[in-house]
Amino acid sequence: MSGKNLSEEEVKRLYEEGRAYLIQRWEPRPGVEEPIVVWGEGAYFYDARGKRYIDLISQLYNVHIGLGNREIIEAAKRQLDELAYSSPSYFNVPQIRLAKRLAQITPGDLCKSFFSNSGTEANEAAIKLAQLYRGAPKIISFWDAYHGSTYASMSVGGSARTRQLLGLSIFEEFKHVPAPYCYRCPFKKTYPECDLLCAEFIRYTIEKEGERFIAAFMAEPICSWAGQVVPPPDYWPRVRRICDEKGILLIFDEVMTGFARTGRMFACEHWNVVPDVETYAKGITSGYVPLGATIVNKMIGDYFDERGFPHSYTYSGHALACATALAVIEYYYKERLAERAAKMGAHMMEELRGMQERQPIIGDIRGLGLFMGVELVANPETRDEIVPRGLTPEQRLDPNHNPMVYLTDKAKEKGLIVGTSPGTGIIRMMPCLTITEEQVEEGLNLLEEVIGETAKRFDLPRKP
Ligand SMILES: Cc1ncc(COP(=O)(O)O)c(C=O)c1O
Q1: What is the pLDDT of residues 152-205, one digit of tens each?
Q2: Is residue 353 within 8 Å of residue 329, measured between CB atoms?
Q3: I need a surface site. Which of 43, 85, 193, 400 has the fewest CB within 10 A?
Q4: Which residues does ligand 1 sit against, CB inside 6 Å?
Q5: Most ligand 1 atoms within 8 A of CB, residue of 159, 256, 286, 421 to mutate
Q6: Residue 119 Cα, ligand 1 centroid: separation in angstroms?
């Protein structure tokens, strides 16, 4: 009990009003009551009934420093007292300071920023910057990726969940290639004998499409939607070389992987590869206020210095958002959260490997730092997918037919939040970087319980 819980009558009324006045989200499940969050502290949050949840995905993979951090709240309050907002036609102090700070902490010669309000908008800006700079319309990216919900960001993401919605316009000039998903290699090859066929397929696609029509290759350094797919060590250096040879830009979407999440400030540092454009949101303010950022290298920055970037928002460079981001970034360094993510991630990985010995439906575990994925399978030898093929849309969201929906519901019942979706066997785990070992243990114990219960319920392989 949180002490901030509402009466049952109030909670029921809120649910009714939510159903009456809010457009339902993706894949709504009528009758299922998602938590109404009223407050939180670190890795825990509490719903309106006072139930506590241990959150292994930091809300939507963004509250890197945990909920309720007083230092950040006070910094935001100070900025509100001074200046909440100024027109994007002018400058404000936090906006300039944040742009400078990003230039200092980002890799290579990334140096000039455009601010927006979300990851979607950061990617939309990146796409336009690349197209205008190159004078070319096409973008190549991964199948099974998510880069946002506006038309361009949705089209660049190859995920079937958005691309196969009837009625929406998908930009057909955006092309897709397979992610380096070694556990289920679409080319049926094994690394390193494959000689990175998946990277070479990018070269092939560029040549087939015609390099003069291609603005950029765009991807997350570790593709989350495909299932926290960590590429082999030489993958990104090879892709960087291909982009350079072909004269196209490399854009990294670090909306999810950026800001200490993977054990480095930015995930591209794991491969020592510097993109031409990089995008941020989520961890840049750790969810305390909305902010997106798109940073470009000097060459692109200089180009737009002369011509201007024909793209803006009323809230570009919002003073409150930029001041909060500055406070959050200082917090990452002060608390050494990248190092902490690396250490806690290694600990969690070891615990999960132990769990894999006991739970045969855990097919694969991958990730870097506190950016982890556990892939459940119906059969560890054949790697058969755990979500049965051919489910009807209703069965897909039904816990009696879909083991992943069953698992997610059971976890919530027990007060555990992990990241799943009804279409894949992947459990994403990205707790706040301040999570303690005891909290990791609490979360993983609950996870093991629900994995075991799911295997039993669906008659999947189990250890006696
Ligand atoms: C990799 C990636 N890019 C972009 C986005 C879109 O960010 P936002 O929801 O802030 O618009 C997301 C959101 O989850 C994401 O994971």
Answers
A1: 999 999 888 777 787 888 898 999 999 999 999 999 999 999 999 999 999 999
A2: no
A3: 193
A4: 118-120, 123, 146-148, 220, 224, 253, 255-256, 281
A5: 256
A6: 5
CA of 147 to the centre of ligand 1 (A): 5
**pLDDT for the residue 434:** 98
Count of the separate structural domains present in the chain: 2
Q: Are residues 178 and 107 in the same domain?
A: yes
**Residue where one domain finishes, among candidates 282, 317, 334:** 334
Q: Which of 120, 224, 278 to mutate to test the pocket of ligand 1 (most atoms within 8 A of CB)?
A: 120
Sign of the C-alpha dihedral computed for residues 435, 438, 444 and 446 taken in this order: negative
* Whether residue 213 sits in one domain with residue 308: yes
Tell me the CB-side half-sphere exposure of residue 121, using CA atoms within 13 A.
19
- For residue 287, the CA-to-ligand 1 centroid distance in Å is 12
> How high is the pLDDT of residue 168?
87
The answer to whether residues 48 and 148 belong to one domain is: no
Q: How far apart are the first and last CA of the chain?
A: 36
Instruction: Report the separation in Å between the CA atom of 414 and the middle of ligand 1, taken as the mean of its atom positions.
Output: 28
- The domain of 438 spans 8-65+337-457
Measured in angstroms, how far is the CA atom of residue 419 from the centroid of ligand 1?
Answer: 14
Q: Nearest residue CA, atom 4 of ligand 1?
A: 147
- In ligand 1, the atom with minimum distance to the C-alpha of 60 is 14
Tell whether 144 and 39 lie within a shared domain.
no
Ligand 1 centre and the CA of 256: distance in Å?
7
Tens digit of each residue's pLDDT (9 = 90 or more) over 349-401: 999 999 999 999 999 999 999 999 999 999 999 999 999 999 999 999 999 99
pLDDT, averaged across the chain: 96
